[in-house]
Amino acid sequence: MTNYNLTTNIKAQIIWALMFVVFNTNAQNLVPNYSFEQHTICNSVGGQGATSWLSPLKGYNILNQYSYFNICSSSKCCGVPSYNFGYGWQFARTGFAFADFWFTNNDGKNQRIYIQSKLYDSLKKNHCYYIEFYVNLFNFSLYANNNISLLVGDTGIVSYNGQPAYTFPQIQQYGNPCITDTLNWVKVGGIYTAHGGEQYITIGNFTDDAHTDTLRVLSVGSYSAYNIDDVSVMPLDSMQLKAEAGRDTTIIKGDSVWIGSRLCGLTNVVWYDAANNVIDTGAPGMWVKPTSNTFYVIEQDVCGQYSRDTVYITVAPLPVTLLSFNVIASAAKQSESINWETASEINTSHFNIQRSEDGSTFYTIGTVKAKGPSTYNFNDPLTTHDSRFTTLYYRLEIVDKNNSKTYSEIRSVFLTNNDSRYTISPNPAKDFISINAQNIKEVKITDASGRLVIKSTKTNIDISTLQKGVYFLEIITNNCNEVKKFIKQ
């Protein structure tokens, strides 16, 4: 009887061997075992299984190194696509294997695990190199982070006792955003000009927690871990790096879209709009918010390689143009009157009126059929107002005939029969909130995860830098403390 797993693994290794030969014939990648297919051991838990890769640690538990995942593993810890005893699920970007690196957050330990390799050949002075690697966030990571970087060096760095190797990596995504994708492989890449003699690359986070942006993505989980695959260091004169304006796309009027790339090191770049006006320089990509169909052109010169590219943006009209949307509490406090007026309706089927008690979870409380541009009204009959809530939130869910949905802005109504001492307005808010209170000692604003984001002693607070979402505002006076909830739009 044929052993299916053994047969599959043998076929996998043969296919990979052919891929390895083809790749290294057509490109001069200086990274050995760039896709982690070659290995010394398949079942590697917190150890080093990939040939030519190590974790540069001194004075730290030897088991706490990068982990290795391969389709050939017979253990639930280290397989592909299922790994980490069922908590992870990821196919390799190419081939049948990948590795990881990790670090802890917000625990005061600042632990860092790096992954390092020595290049086939040292880099040549004043030569340009294209460097890239691909990552995604481990499914069970509690946090997502920025500072996912690659360091090029003459010698290999060392992390003592698992602490950050404080240095200045040369390759990270332009703008250094938090990388949150757990499904797709995300490219981190850029251009590097060698000073000559560099032989090592190291990948990881080269700063401490205090200087790393942290985004909580799960309510429960573990440290931050990133899978890594397909690491490349290629002489630019062995390849052609073309300008990348991004994919042609369609957006709804009023939306923004990212164009270009996030490659770092592209300094000689110029962006033009459809009228041939220069709109930016030195940026590989940017956010744009066109109001009509248009295109943008990127022009770049990288180490003598000149190229241009064009991206076309189609701007679709809003399915509904709202002239107004208001919610008014009745004098008897027994109903809320929801009113809205439309200036245009394109293929609109109906409006769902939705209510929320926390500003986050909305429920449909009624439906009104679309009748073309006109004025609408809906009464939300409320027999009582629960004293636990100071505010009710409303929005419109606008449903097209093809069942696509868009949403209005959120409106709120304060429940004045509540005995709350203080109020904040507006709520929802965009840029500023005002607090109706006296003798304020301090105001603290925390996000939904409990992280303190703003501390102030003012009654007018700038919230323009906060991301959209639900926040909690604690008002501290000489007499008492009170917590309010508000929404940042």
Question: In summary, what is this structure?
Answer:
The protein has about 500 residues and is mainly beta.
Q: Supply the helix-strand structural class.
A: mainly beta
Total beta strand runs: 37
Largest sheet: 6 strands, antiparallel
Mean pLDDT, as a whole number?
84
The general outline is globular
- Residue runs with pLDDT of under 50 for 5 or more positions: 1-26, 383-389
Total of DSSP H or I helical runs spanning 4+ residues: 1
> What share of the residues lie within helices?
under 10%
Rg from alpha-carbon coordinates? 28 Å
Distance between the termini: 63 Å
Strand proportion, as a percent range, falls in: 35-45%
Q: What does the model show?
A:
With 489 residues, the chain is mainly β. It has one helix and 37 strands. A hairpin with a 2-residue loop joins strand 21 and strand 22.
Question: What secondary-structure arrangement, pairings included, does this model have?
Answer:
Blueprint: H1 4-26, E1 57-58, E2 68-70, E3 82-83, E4 88-89, E5 97-103, E6 112-113, E7 115-118, E8 128-137, E9 143-145, E10 149-153, E11 159-160, E12 186-193, E13 200-204, E14 214-216, E15 224-235, E16 249-252, E17 257-260, E18 269-272, E19 278-281, E20 285-288, E21 294-302, E22 305-316, E23 320-329, E24 335-345, E25 348-356, E26 363-369, E27 375-381, E28 391-400, E29 405-407, E30 411-414, E31 423-425, E32 432-436, E33 440-447, E34 452-456, E35 460-462, E36 469-477, E37 481-488
Parallel strand pairs: 1-11, 16-22
Antiparallel strand pairs: 2-5, 3-4, 5-6, 5-15, 7-13, 8-12, 8-15, 9-14, 10-13, 17-20, 18-19, 18-21, 21-22, 23-24, 24-27, 25-26, 25-28, 28-29, 28-30, 31-32, 32-35, 33-34, 33-36, 36-37
